[in-house]
C-alpha cells in the first residue's frame, strides 16, 4: 500500500516518544503509569491516589504566602507587586494542570494505551510513512526545547540564592552577619527568619516547591504537544489510506468493502480521540488563555520597569519568565490549530479517493463517511473560545493594551 516510504525506516517504538512524559507523571506521584507501555491493567495502590495531594498542599502554601506578600508590598511598590503576581499566576496554573491530570488519571492512562495500539497497528499494516515519523520526532524535539526553557526559568530563581550562600561561606566564613532575606521566591513567612536553621528550612521548602512547579508546569504542556501531534499523525495515516484506496483496481468487492469498514472505524475513532483531547484540555486551555493574558501584561511591565530603573540583577529572571509565558500561550494555540487543520484534510481525502469505479453500495458507505467528515471540527474551549493562531493574536493584543494602561498609571 505504502510501497516505498513505509520500508525506508526501522520501527520506532511508541515508548521512545513518551518515556519523558511518563516519567513526569510518575514524578507527580502517578507511579503506576509505567504500565502504559507494557499493556497491563493499571493497579493503583491506595497510597498512590493521595501522593499527588502532598505536592498540591505544598504549592498551595507557597501561593498563599505570595498573596500575603502582595498585600504587604502593593502600596509600597507596584513594580515589585507585579513581579510577585506573575510568579503567583504561573504557580496557580501549574497547580491546575496537576489537579487535572490527577483527577482524570484513569482516562489519561487509557488514552495513552489507545494511542500506543494505534501507532503499533499503523506500523504493522505499513500505514506509517517517513513524514509521520518526522512529525513525531519534531514534537519530541519541541518538547525538549520547552523543558530547557522551564529548567532555565527555575535556574534563574535559584541561582542568585545559592551563589550568595556560597560566597558568604567561602569569602566571609568568620562573619556571622548574613542576609536571611535572600530567598528564592518573594513570599511572606508567618514567622521571622533570624537563624540559619530556620533559613535553610525555608530554603528547603522553596526548593521542593520549585521542583514541584517544574513538574506541574511540564505535565500539561508536553502532554499537549505530544498528544495533539500523535492524534494528527493518525489523521495523516487515515488520509494516506484514503489516497491509496483501490488504486490498483485489483481488489475484490468484498476486500474493498472490508477496507472501507476499517477506514470508517478509524475515522470514528479519530473523532473520539479529538473530542477527548478537547474535553480533557479545555479547562487547562481556558486558564492558559485567561491567566497568561494577565501574566504577559504584568511580566512585560516588570521587564520594562527593570530596564528603565537599571535593575539588571533580576532582569534575566523576569525575561525568561516572559519568554516562557509567551511560548506557552503560542504552543497551545499552534498545536490546537494544527489538529484542526489535519482533521479538516480528511474530508478532502475522502472526496479525492478512487471512489468513481466503486459499486453503488461502496459509494453509499463512502458518502456517509463524507457527510460525517463534512462537519468542520474546531478545537474549542467549552465552545466559547476557538483555540488557534488568531486567538493567540487576540491574547497578545489584549495583553499589550493592558500593559500600555498599566505603564501610564505606573
TrEMBL record:
GO terms for molecular function: odorant binding; olfactory receptor activity. The keyword Transmembrane applies. One of its GO terms (biological process) is signal transduction. It is found in: Cell membrane. Pfam families: 7tm_6. GO terms for cellular component: plasma membrane. It comes from Cotesia glomerata (Lepidopteran parasitic wasp). Belongs to the insect chemoreceptor superfamily. Heteromeric odorant receptor channel (TC 1.A.69) family. The chain crosses the membrane at residues 50-71, 77-96, 145-165, 280-301, 379-403. It is a multi-pass membrane protein. Keywords: Cell membrane, Membrane, Olfaction, Receptor, Sensory transduction, Transducer, Transmembrane, Transmembrane helix. This is Odorant receptor.
Amino acid at each position: 500500500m505504502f510501497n516505498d516510504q513505509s520500508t525506508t525506516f526501522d520501527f520506532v517504538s511508541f515508548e521512545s516518544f513518551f518515556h519523558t512524559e511518563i516519567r513526569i507523571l510518575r514524578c507527580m506521584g502517578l507511579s503506576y503509569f509505567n504500565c502504559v507501555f507494557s499493556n497491563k491493567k493499571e493497579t493503583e495502590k491506595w497510597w498512590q491516589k493521595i501522593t499527588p495531594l502532598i505536592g498540591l498542599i505544598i504549592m498551595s502554601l507557597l501561593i498563599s504566602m505570595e498573596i500575603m506578600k502582595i498585600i504587604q508590598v502593593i502600596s509600597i511598590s507596584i513594580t515589585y507587586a507585579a513581579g510577585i503576581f506573575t510568579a503567583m499566576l504561573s504557580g496557580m496554573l501549574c497547580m491546575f494542570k496537576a489537579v487535572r491530570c490527577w483527577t482524570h488519571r484513569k482516562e489519561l492512562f487509557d488514552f495513552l494505551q489507545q494511542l500506543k495500539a494505534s501507532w503499533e497497528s499503523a506500523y504493522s499494516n505499513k500505514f506509517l510513512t517517513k513524514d509521520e515519523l518526522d512529525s513525531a520526532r519534531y514534537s519530541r524535539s519541541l518538547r525538549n526545547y520547552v523543558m530547557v526553557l522551564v529548567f532555565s526559568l527555575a535556574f534563574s530563581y535559584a541561582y542568585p540564592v545559592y551563589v550568595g550562600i556560597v560566597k558568604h561561606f567561602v569569602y566571609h566564613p568568620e562573619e556571622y552577619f548574613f542576609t536571611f532575606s535572600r530567598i528564592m521566591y518573594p513570599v511572606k513567612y508567618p514567622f521571622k527568619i533570624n537563624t540559619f536553621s530556620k533559613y535553610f528550612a525555608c530554603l528547603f521548602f522553596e526548593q521542593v516547591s520549585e521542583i514541584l512547579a517544574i513538574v506541574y508546569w511540564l505535565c500539561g504542556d508536553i502532554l499537549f504537544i505530544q498528544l495533539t501531534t500523535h492524534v494528527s499523525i493518525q489523521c495523516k495515516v487515515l488520509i494516506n489510506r484514503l489516497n491509496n484506496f483501490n488504486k490498483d483496481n485489483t481488489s475484490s468487492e468484498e476486500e474493498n468493502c472490508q477496507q472501507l469498514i476499517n477506514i470508517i472505524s478509524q475515522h470514528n475513532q479519530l473523532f473520539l480521540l479529538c473530542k477527548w483531547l478537547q474535553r480533557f484540555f479545555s479547562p487547562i486551555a481556558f486558564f492558559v488563555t485567561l491567566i497568561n493574558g494577565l501574566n504577559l501584561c504584568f511580566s512585560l511591565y516588570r521587564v520594562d520597569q527593570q530596564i528603565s530603573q537599571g535593575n539588571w540583577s533580576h532582569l534575566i529572571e523576569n525575561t525568561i519568565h516572559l519568554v516562557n509565558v509567551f511560548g506557552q500561550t503560542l504552543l497551545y494555540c499552534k498545536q490546537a490549530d494544527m489538529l484542526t487543520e489535519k482533521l479538516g484534510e480528511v474530508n478532502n481525502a475522502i472526496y479525492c479517493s478512487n471512489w468513481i469505479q466503486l459499486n453503488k453500495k461502496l459509494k453509499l458507505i463512502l458518502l456517509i463517511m463524507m457527510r460525517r467528515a463534512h462537519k468542520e471540527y474546531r478545537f474549542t474551549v467549552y465552545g466559547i473560545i476557538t483555540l488557534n493562531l488568531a486567538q493567540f493574536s487576540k491574547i497578545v493584543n489584549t495583553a499589550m493594551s493592558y500593559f500600555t494602561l498599566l505603564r501610564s498609571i505606573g
